[in-house]
Amino acid sequence: MRFLSMIRIDEKTAKAPTEKLMTDMGKLIEEMTKAGVLIDTAGLRPTSEGARVRLRGGRVTTIDGPFTESKEVIGGYAILEAKSKEEAVEHARRFLEVHGDEWDLECEVRQLDSGEPQQ
């Protein structure tokens, strides 16, 4: 099963990653990739560089960032291969723990829908 792990951050209080965090994260990413658990991962550029495209009442509108009304935004993602939701959550926990106590992060983990009928 594949899962999408979305990292939520507060852009207003987020800080640049330290060299230690980048090294530790690199080791974890390498380990998870070799194990076949990590399919893809990336951080996202700030909302100030993004846009939202919305469909409401049959009308499509576009809003350029930043999105000041949002306290937390998606700051990165990972696509994980796991045997269960519990295993995917454990991988997300490891990712968060690498950040130490200086960060305030949240990770949402959701299974990707294969498009095949559920049994």
Structural key phrases:
single chain; alpha+beta; four-stranded antiparallel sheet; 2 helices; 6 strands
Please bin the fraction of helical residues. Answer: 25-40%
- Helix/strand-derived category reads alpha+beta
Give the CATH superfamily.
Answer: Dimeric alpha+beta barrel
Instruction: Determine the CATH topology.
Output: Alpha-Beta Plaits
Beta-strand share of residues: 25-35%
State Rg: 16 Å
Q: What order do the helices and strands follow?
A: EHEEEEHE
Low-confidence stretches: none
How many distinct folded domains?
A: 1
User: What is the architecture at the second tier of CATH?
Assistant: 2-Layer Sandwich
Major beta-sheet overview: 4 strands, antiparallel
Number of strands: 6
Output the number of helix runs: 2
Nearest-integer average pLDDT: 92
CATH secondary-structure class: Alpha Beta
The N- to C-terminal Cα distance equals 15 Å
Shape: flat
Q: Which strand order does the major sheet show?
A: 2-5-1-6
Q: How does this structure look, described?
A:
The chain is α+β, with helices and mostly antiparallel strands and 119 residues long. It has a single domain (2-111), classed as Dimeric alpha+beta barrel (Alpha-Beta Plaits). The protein is 25% helix and 34% strand. It contains two helices and six strands, in the order βαββββαβ. It has helices at 19-34, 85-98; strands spanning 2-9, 38-43, 51-56, 59-64, 73-81, 106-111. Strand 3 and strand 4 form a beta hairpin. It is flat. It starts with a strand and ends in an 8-residue tail after the last strand.
